User: Fold these one by one.
Assistant:
Number 1:
Amino acid sequence: MTEVPSAKSAPANGEALCRVESLSTHFPVNRGPFRKGGVVRAVDRVTLEVHPGETVGLVGESGCGKSTLGRTLLRLIEPTAGKIFFEGRDITKLSASEMRPLRRRMQVIFQDPYASLDPRMSVRDTVAEALEIHGLAKSEKDANDKVASLLEKVGLRPDQMDRYPHEFSGGQRQRVGIARALAVDPRFIVADEPISALDVSIQAQIVNLLKDLQEELGLAYLFIAHDLKVVEYLSHRVAVMYLGRVVETAPSRELYDDPRHPYTRALLSAVPVPDPETRRARIVLQGDVPSPLDPPSGCSFHPRCSIAEKGLCDREAPPLVQLKKRPTQWVACFKAEES
Ligand SMILES: Nc1ncnc2c1ncn2[C@@H]1O[C@H](COP(=O)(O)OP(=O)(O)OP(=O)(O)O)[C@@H](O)[C@H]1O
Ligand SMILES: [Mg+2]
C-alpha cells in the first residue's frame, strides 16, 4: 500500500476542478455550564478531488460531515486546517471580495428548495437576482430573456416566471433552485441532498435533469445523498464518509462491485437489489454512530466493526491508502487487502 496523497497522487488523473487536501472543519462547542467545551471534528483531514464534468457521490450516515465538507469546499464555512484548490488556484485564504468572481463558478443546490427560496420573490426576481449580482444582464430585457431560457432549460415554462414559490410543487421549486444556480454559468455544483425532500415519484425527474444538464453544460457535481442507488446511477466516483473522514473512495463500479471498507460493505448490504444472485448478506451495523465530540480511539469505526483486530484497530487510525490490487480504490482500513 502506498501512503496517501500529495496533491499529485490523489485518486484520479488530470487537473482537478476542485481539490481539497487534508481539509478539517472543527466546531468548538460548549458542553454545558459544568463541563469543559469540546470540539466536533465534523470534517477531519479529508483529501478529495472533483474533475471537470465529473460527479462525485458523497455518502455516509447522518452527521458524518457531508454537508460541512460541501460547504467548506465552497468556502461557505471556514476550514480549520488544510487547503482548498479551485481551477488550480489555492482559495483557502482568499478574502470575501477575492472570492466573489469565483462564486459564479461554484454553486450550491440545497435539499429543501422551499427554505432556500425567498417566498416574497417571484421566480423571475429570484433568478434575475443571481444574474444581477454577477453583472450578467445587460438590460431588463436581457435579464428576462435569460430567465426565460433558464426556465426552459430546467423544464419550466417561461410564462411561469411571475409566479411565487408557493405556487409551485416541490419538484418545480427544486427546478427553480437549479435555474438560479445555473444562471451564473457555474462549472461546479455542490448538490446537498437535492432530492431527499421530494416525493419519490418526482425524484427520478430531478436526477435525470441533473444528469442531462451535466452532459449539456459539462458541469461537475459533488452529489450528497443518502440513497445509494441514486448515487450509483449518477456518480462516476463515490466517497464514503464516517465520522468526518473519508474511509473509502473509488470509481462507482469498483466501489459497488467490491467495497473494501467494512463500513461501505455494511451500507451497501442494506441496499435492496432485485436479482437474488447478486444480493448481499445484510450486515447489520451494531450500535449508533459514536459522538464526533468524543470519537473512539484508533479507527473510529472499530467499535462497530466485525473484523476489527484488538491491539491494532483500537490503537491506530488507518490512513486512506491506495489498494495494491486496484490503485483507483483508496481505503482507510488495515484489513482492506485481506478480507
Ligand atoms: N455549526 C455547527 N456547530 C457545531 N456543530 C456542528 C455545526 N454544523 C454541523 N455540526 C456537527 O458536525 C457534524 C457533521 O454535520 P453535517 O451536517 O455536516 O453532517 P451530514 O453528514 O451532512 O448529516 P445529514 O446526513 O444529517 O445531513 C454533526 O455532528 C453536526 O452536529
Ligand atoms: Mg447534511
Note: Residues 132 and 139 are 10 Å apart (CA to CA).
Number 2:
Amino acid sequence: MAFNLIFLGPPGAGKGTLALRVKDMLHIPHISTGNIFREAITAKTPLGLKVKSIIDAGKLVDDDTTVALVKEYFAQSGMQAGYILDGFPRTIAQADALALFSTVTHAVNFDIEDTVVLERLGGRRVCRSCGFNWHASFNPPKQANVCDKCGGEVYTRDDDKPEAVQKRLLVYREQTAPLTAYYRAKGLLVDIDANGNVETILTHFKKALNL
Ligand SMILES: [Zn+2]
C-alpha cells in the first residue's frame, strides 16, 4: 500500500524536519506547494506563468489556482509510490478538491503546545550574512549576536518575534482546526505528539502508522 500522507501542524511543529526522515524511510517524495509553484514557474507552463504574475504582484495565490497547480503536478508525476504533502490542503475546499484526484491514506496531525512553538521559533536567530539558523537556547553562537561561521550579524527576524509567532499560531489554529475535524470525521486523522525532538517525533509517527 502506498502512503499518501498529508502533514498538518503549525509553523515550528517540525513538519519539514520529520518529512526529511520519513521521505528516506518510506522512499516517497516530500512535496510542498512552494516546490510545486517553483517547478511550474521554471517550466513556464500556463499555470506557472499565472502563479508568477500573482506572486510578482505581491498577492496570495488563490484556492483555485493552487488546486489546479497541485492537480497538474500529480498528473505529471504519477505519485503511485505515495507522497508527503506539506502545506496543502489548507482549507476544506482544497481538501475536497484533492479528494477528487488522490486518495489520502493518513492525515498526520502534529500536536504541539503553543509554548513549545514559541520557544522554538521565538529563539530562532538568523545570520544576516550567510543565512545560518542559530537558536538562542538550543544552538547559540559563541559570542552573542555574532555568527561563528562567518562573523556576520545574528538577528531575530520580525516573523520570529513573540507577537508575530502568537499571530501565526492564531491564524493557523483558525484555518486548520476545521481541517483536522474534516479528516477525523473520515477516520484518516493520526495525532502525533510533536513536543519533543525529531527522534521522539519519528518514534511517535512510526507507532501511529504501525511501521
Ligand atoms: Zn553567518
Note: Residues 42 and 48 are 7 Å apart (CA to CA).
